[in-house]
Specification:
Elements lengths: L2 H22 L3 E2 L9 H4 L3 E2 L2 E3 L13 H7 L2 E8 L5 E9 L11 H7 L3 E12 L2 E12 L2 E11 L2 E3 L4 H10 L3 E2 L2 E7 L5 H17 L3 H8 L2 H5 L1
Parallel strand pairs: 1-10
Antiparallel strand pairs: 2-3, 3-4, 4-5, 5-11, 6-7, 7-8, 8-9, 8-11
Length: 230
């Protein structure tokens, strides 16, 4: 084959591949197909034994710069709650309507160390809430005398995704359908030198919070469990 013909064929293949990639690029946002997400309205300020404590907002670590938050997320919600015994739990939720490669939610085990925290431990576990199993990640962080155990999970569209490749494979499955999934990071933490106690309190907090939501709002935060069980 003559070089000029070979070069022409290569060029044609490159153009075809580029066109196919554009044609297969997801264009429909799942976020536009349902009711709008309004975190402040969806999450109550009091439920169960927990009451919001607005004056202690400064306890919550914001592990990302504002510019990065504005780029990645459409909405964020941060609150501190306290129970009658004086135990405080910090809630942080970040929602993004576009989970394309450039706008992935950032995991706490990456963001906390970037802000000077030491990552002391990481483990995967499950939350059992009203017959629903939620895969979660637990990390223990510290900064000076501040020991902050963290529990979090991530949703992609209508699914809670597990660790490893699960999140990426879920995003790809939606992409093959021409859909751009939204995503959400649900993070609970508390300042506590006893990690086991912190995780127990966080489990109780999550159960009471999710149990207080409407079925539609609860599904947004823990996924469509019926779909996952099929």
């Amino acid at each position: 084959m003559k070089p000029i013909v070979k070069n022409f064929l290569l060029l044609a293949l490159m153009v075809a591949a580029s066109g196919l990639a554009v044609a297969m690029r997801p264009t429909h946002k799942i976020a536009d197909m349902g009711p709008p997400v309004k975190l402040d309205a969806m999450i109550p300020t009091s439920f169960g034994e927990w009451q919001e404590e607005p004056q202690n907002q400064t306890l919550i670590v914001d592990p990302q710069q504002k510019e990065m938050i504005d780029k990645l997320y459409n909405q964020t919600l941060t609150r501190t709650y306290i129970n009658p015994q004086g135990y405080r739990v910090m809630l942080s939720i970040a929602y993004g309507s576009d989970q394309s490669d450039a706008k992935q939610v950032h995991k706490p085990e990456v963001c906390y160390p970037a802000q000077g925290f030491q990552l002391k431990n990481k483990q995967h576990g499950q939350l059992e809430i009203q017959g629903t199993t939620i895969p979660v990640t637990r990390i223990e962080t510290s900064l000076g005398q501040r020991n902050e155990p963290v529990t979090y999970w991530i949703t992609v569209a209508d699914r809670v995704v597990g660790p490893g490749l699960d999140k990426k494979l879920t995003e790809m499955s939606f992409g093959l359908q021409g859909k751009i999934p939204d995503g959400l990071l649900f993070r609970i933490s508390s300042i506590d030198s006893e990690s086991n106690q912190a995780y127990e309190k966080q489990n109780a907090f999550a159960g009471q919070l999710l149990g207080s939501l409407t079925p539609e709002n609860r599904q947004k935060f823990i996924g469509n469990q019926k779909r996952e069980q099929q």
